[in-house]
Amino acid sequence: MNSRAWLQYYKNNPKNWTDPEWKLSSPLDPKTKRALAHSLSHFQLGESGGGNFLFAQARKQAPDDPDYHQALELFIDEEKAHADLLEQLVHHFGGGTIKRHWTHALFRLARRALGLNFELQVLVIAELVGTAYYRLLHRRSRDPVLEQACDRILRDETRHIDFHAEWLGDFQWRLLPLERAAWSAQFQVLFTIAAQIAWIDHRFCLEALGAKRREFFREARSECIHFLKQLERSVEEGRALARS
Asked: Which of 6, 39, 89, 112 is 20 to 30 A distant from 46 in Cα terms?
């Protein structure tokens, strides 16, 4: 894994951030705004956590890669910046943030169930599902402030997924084909469960914008398939480097 390149990316990326034009008017009706505020508050809670457990696992599993440790810290900083942006969006739509929710508690429990690689795959699954969600908000809302916020989050999340795919690819190229197949199967099972939970939690918001269940799952499945193909490429690159 090219940890130094990722560290440089995370150092430079905040220079590309722009804030939404908060003063722009919204075409949405009050009921839809309330649904958005409620839904976004759940995502805001999920983005607001710290990374102490993640950092400890990284130091334990990759003790000789300080660039990766620092890149992870900057990744968490970006997630916190997303939480700040989402908090502003929640207030923009007339809502308030929350301190706890069962989906957030379940996510934290899953993240800490096993070691670093499992925590990273849970993070990736959350980002894949979140990407599908933000794409639908961007496509369906026709709200300029929300579209601008989603643009920024989607750009960052794309690179976050790339970052984790490179680490997981480095881990996977050392596995036997059967072991990789088993890993892929359990990943897809967990992804499907996460997507179902996300739909249950956010369906009223998405339906208020005109999105259907089939559209959400089509978008989510597309993100998952793209990630698994990306992971395969990372595995092949790891093999090539090992042979050279």
From this structure: 6
